[in-house]
Amino acid sequence: MTTTPEGVSLGMPQLPAPAYPDDVRARLEADAREVVARYPDSRSALLPLLHLVQSEEGHVTRTGMRFCADVLGLTTAEVTAVATFYSMYRRGPSGDYQVGVCTNTLCAVLGGDAIFETLQEHLGVANGGTTEDGKVTLEHIECNAACDFAPVVMVNWEFFDNQTPASAKRLVDDLRAGVQVEPTRGAPLCTFKDTARILAGFPDTRDGAVEASGSSGPASLTGLRLAKGENPARVVHPRGGSAMNAPPQDTAASDPSHPAGPVTEEGE
Amino acid sequence: MTLAPESGGAARASEFERGVGTSPEKLLVPVLSAFWDEDRSWSLDVYRRHEGYEGLRKALAMTPDDLIAYVKDSGLRGRGGAGFPTGMKWQFIPQGDGKPHYLVVNADESEPGTCKDIPLLFANPHSLIEGIVIACYAIRSSHAFIYLRGEVVPVLRRLHEAVREAYAAGYLGENVLGSGLDLELTVHAGAGAYICGEETALLDSLEGRRGQPRLRPPFPAVAGLYACPTVVNNVESIASVPAILQKGKEWFRSMGTEKSPGFTLYSLSGHVTSPGQYEAPLGITLRQLLDMSGGMRAGHRLKFWTPGGSSTPMFTDEHLDVPLDYEGVGAAGSMLGTKALQCFDETTCVVRAVTRWTEFYAHESCGKCTPCREGTYWLVQLLRDIEAGKGAMSDLDKLNDIADNINGKSFCALGDGAASPIFSSLKYFREEYEDHITGRGCPFDPAKSTAWADRTEVNA
User: Fold this and answer.
1) What pLDDT is recorded for position A201?
2) B168 contact A CB<8A
3) Counting CB atoms within 10 angstroms of each CB, which of A87, A117, B210, B236 has the fewest?
4) What CATH code is assigned to B263-336?
5) In which band, very low, low, confident or very high, does the pLDDT at A7 lie, cut at 50, 70 and 90?
């Protein structure tokens, strides 16, 4: 068989991971010092440092874990135990854009399951798979705290609200074609590596990134607009997007047997 | 309609009698959300225009002990789920112990259905930062942390910017507003783990470890972050404090009920006409919220809903008039939780919904406690079989039995949360489970439940 160490199967442990090249290590060490300085105890910097090494290579490599261990005075086993616990750290190479479809109950029921199936078929990849061009990694994700915008798709952890199978297909097509895509809530997309650097605690310095997409999504304002005396029918409807000019919504009052309908019980 | 007698003051009760009680202007009280529709609502300038950091000035004029007593008197209770009185949590921090004290804000909002803290932080992050400064002054802490779940980069951006602005304006850093308080605030992004919303798992995670819950006692107030006295509070709890200081505890107590005073964010989602955030006094009902907002989607009726996320036992249309406060929801057999009102209509298969939630708990179980780790695994196996029409009637009792063996038998509440949808769905919808077994499959068409099912211009 082969004589390379990787090919030998003698139950031997892997050789230590190679270190980063000197220039990369020097740059990351400067960043790491900044991260460590935020905490009273250096070990607290481990999660941000794992985000940092992920921003270097797109996933958490053995080299990256060794770097974290060296910086914090931990064993690589201690670092590996943490890196494998959290779902945002990737274990292998993946795409520039991580497309996550929420399939927790509420989004799933409102269409997340259909969107996820459509995208798997459209991209020809299964859960966790990456397209051949290396652009898109598809996965299903858990509840991302945007249930009033369901069904939700996240790309590099920016919000794409109120999606449909058709809009999600357009989204991934645009990502693969290199078209600049703007989330409904969040900043114009950067790559997964850039996102990981923000997660490590280094603010996004792009012009307009903080203010992008406005103060709030429409659903966040539903109650506020009602409290200001706007009729629900005139409230911009978060679902459709085009409801501003649509005729007033039918309400559940149209269903006389509907126990939750407005006013049906009021006169009782 | 029925209304809990304590649901408002005398003035409000008479309005209800006159039949104007469902007007949203009367029922909703936007406080934290009051200016989310303004341009750059997240910026310091806009926050200051809305009395921002005025509550802090009033707080700094008090002694820390008086401040704790004031927040205690306001009756503010934790908005993260358990409803523990916030002022009391602060009071538990031992003073004069010579150890550093820490404030850790739990911004790991991940409970399925829960979506209040994320829009709050996106649109109004300074309300949290002002609350943090006030809380740290009260508990004599000089370092606070915001543990934000990692999967919300837009919110992280605005927190980074808001913290930068607050430092530049002298609300953070050395000698805050000349008060002598030195305060560092660190924004810490998590890395994807529901369990880290549990306060002791969150502390382990913030210490750079796997997020696994700790056995209590000792409680965090005695041995929290780095084994030092630590307050862990939910985002909304802390963000509510500045308004209490600015407008007064009497103002706060004039809303809500005797035991659940104040305002809070209710998050309406699912098969409703107008999903979104509704800020209202505690004790409002789902019927009132639906009435003012267009009800369920046209032509459909409410089947089941959660009062506070998937871990709170589900309700049905029988519970539309339950006052949504800590006592009201508790008395009806559930928990107020995070006020995540996920509403599902008659097109939704309850077995599918519960199976998916259970898969979530199995995925997110940290593995520390055997009942939760193994129990959630076996619940998923049984539920998948039942949903696919391959179950047996005896499986239903087995589900109940396994849930019973998880409930209350693990270190943290994740196990209890996993048991809740099982117990409550079997209580209200046992027949539907039986139909899956006798009918050898699911009688529902998932296409009818989608957001676009009733649209004419189908773009699916």
Assistant:
1) 98
2) no
3) A117
4) 3.10.20.600
5) low
Please answer yes or no on whether A223 and B194 come within 8 Å at the CB atom.
no
Output the pTM of the full model: 0.91
**Quick check: B127 contacting A, CB < 8 Å?**
no
Rounded to an integer, the average pLDDT of B428-439 is: 98
Q: Do B33 and A223 touch (CB under 8 A)?
A: yes
Does B110 reach chain A within 8 Å, measured CB to CB?
A: yes
Selecting from 1.10.10, 1.10.3470, 2.60.40, 1.20.1280, what CATH number does the domain A14-83 have?
A: 1.10.10
Closest-CA residue of A relative to B25 is A227
In this complex, is the C-beta atom of B454 within 8 Å of any C-beta atom belonging to chain A? no
Residue A152 near residue A142 (C-beta atoms within 8 A): no
Collapsed DSSP state (helix, strand, coil) of residue B134 = helix
CB B78 within 8 A of CB B89: yes
Coil, helix or strand at residue A265: coil
Joined together, the tokens standing for residue B77 give 């209770």
CB pairs under 8 A between A and B: 357
Closest CA to A77 of A29, A8, A13: A13
Tokens of B315: 């309700």
A143: Cα separation from own chain's centroid: 11
Q: Is the dihedral of CA B126, B132, B135, B136 positive or negative?
A: negative
What ipTM does this complex have?
Answer: 0.93
By mean pLDDT, which of A227-231, B118-122, B226-230, B250-254 is the weakest? A227-231
Nearest-Cα distance to chain A for B22, in Å, is 9
Task: Answer yes or no: are the C-beta atoms of B192 and A86 closer than 8 Å.
Answer: yes
Tell me the mean pLDDT in the region B194-203. 97
Homologous superfamily in CATH for domain A97-190: Glutaredoxin (3.40.30.10)
**What's the topology of domain B27-248?**
Rossmann fold (3.40.50)
CB contact under 8 A, A106 and B113: yes
Least CA distance to B152: which residue of chain A?
A: A157
Q: What pLDDT sits at residue B143?
A: 98
CATH number of B350-444: 1.20.1440.230
